[in-house]
């Protein structure tokens, strides 16, 4: 049975070494791995972007299809609707993949949608699009990627709510997150160059990176930290905060690719700008870990939602992995 036609698959082996995992990723990124479209790159990106939001189980880290393919849909919305980049090799029947057809049909059903960021679309309409994309991806990409990794990467059942990433792969993807992102972008860009006109693929790597949107409005987090928890001093320098308060990603967004309250601190503009894309020195880990213990006692629905996948030691691991990935430490 072909990989794309699989309905379920167990984790073949739970303990494999880094060399074996590298060989599997290198195969998937290579031209030897059959790819009619870019879906496999898109699912790898969704897994990398979701690493810190999964739930630990006895078998590995569980991610819902809804979460993975909501990210997948948002990424493709930008690539297909915003940048008009085709994602499939022409097969003589169609120039567009099913995902492109779903997104373009949604965008043309209402002229306004094509001008909007995906997150700005009405929630009901957005959910309809995600459901259509999820159904197609479950049918054609989950089993295909599983087979390409020889059954080692995750366990899945298309009749269940999600898939379970092997602990070995989870640790590996954390350890080499930056390298895997770069390899995935590069391989994806090579594929796009073959199926698009030259004038459409200028700065294609940049377009792939920009396909993961940053949340622009972080005011709700600022208000929670200032009003509910009375955080009125800069997390870094300790000076009293005035009107221009920055919400800073403790571990830089470039590594996390997510917006969660447990990774946010309030900062004065000077400290935030000086910190830039760096991790704070290790002494601040104790400070934010203690702060998060206080936040976890809240009954606020926003806080509970953001802390759903948070565990003790998570930020310590992220700090170590971010530095291994080349993000430098900043000392005040």
UniProtKB/TrEMBL annotation:
SMART domains: HNHc. Keywords: Endonuclease, Hydrolase, Nuclease. GO terms for molecular function: endonuclease activity. It comes from the Bacteria. The keyword Lipoprotein does not apply. Residues 224-273 form the HNH nuclease domain. This is HNH endonuclease.
């Amino acid at each position: 049975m072909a990989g794309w036609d699989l309905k379920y698959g167990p984790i073949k082996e739970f303990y494999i070494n880094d060399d074996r995992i590298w060989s599997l990723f290198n195969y998937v990124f290579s031209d030897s791995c059959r790819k009619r479209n870019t879906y496999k790159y898109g699912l790898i990106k969704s897994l990398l972007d979701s690493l810190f939001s999964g739930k630990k189980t006895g078998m590995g880290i569980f991610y819902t299809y809804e979460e993975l393919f909501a990210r997948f849909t948002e990424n493709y919305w930008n690539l297909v609707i915003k940048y008009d980049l085709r994602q499939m090799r022409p097969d003589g029947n169609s120039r567009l993949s099913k995902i492109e057809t779903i997104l373009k049909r949604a965008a043309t059903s209402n002229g306004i949608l094509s001008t909007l960021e995906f997150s700005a679309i009405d929630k009901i309409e957005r959910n309809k699009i995600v459901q259509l994309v999820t159904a197609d991806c479950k049918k054609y990409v989950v089993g295909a990627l599983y087979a390409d990794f020889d059954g080692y990467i995750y366990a899945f059942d298309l009749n269940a709510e999600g898939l379970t990433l092997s602990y070995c792969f989870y640790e590996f993807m954390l350890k080499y997150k930056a390298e895997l992102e770069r390899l995935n972008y590069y391989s994806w860009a090579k594929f796009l160059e073959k199926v698009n006109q030259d004038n459409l693929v200028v700065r294609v790597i940049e377009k792939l990176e920009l396909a993961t949107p940053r949340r622009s409005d972080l005011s709700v987090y600022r208000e929670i930290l200032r009003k509910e928890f009375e955080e009125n001093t800069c997390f870094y320098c300790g000076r009293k905060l005035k009107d221009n308060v920055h919400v800073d990603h403790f571990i830089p967004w470039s590594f996390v690719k997510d917006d969660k309250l447990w990774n946010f601190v309030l900062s004065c503009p000077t400290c935030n700008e000086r910190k830039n894309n760096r991790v704070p020195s290790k002494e601040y880990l104790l400070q934010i870990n203690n702060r998060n213990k206080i936040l976890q006692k809240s009954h606020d629905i926003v806080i509970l939602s953001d802390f759903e996948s948070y565990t003790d030691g998570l930020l310590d691991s992220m700090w170590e992995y971010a530095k291994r990935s080349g993000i430098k430490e900043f000392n005040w």
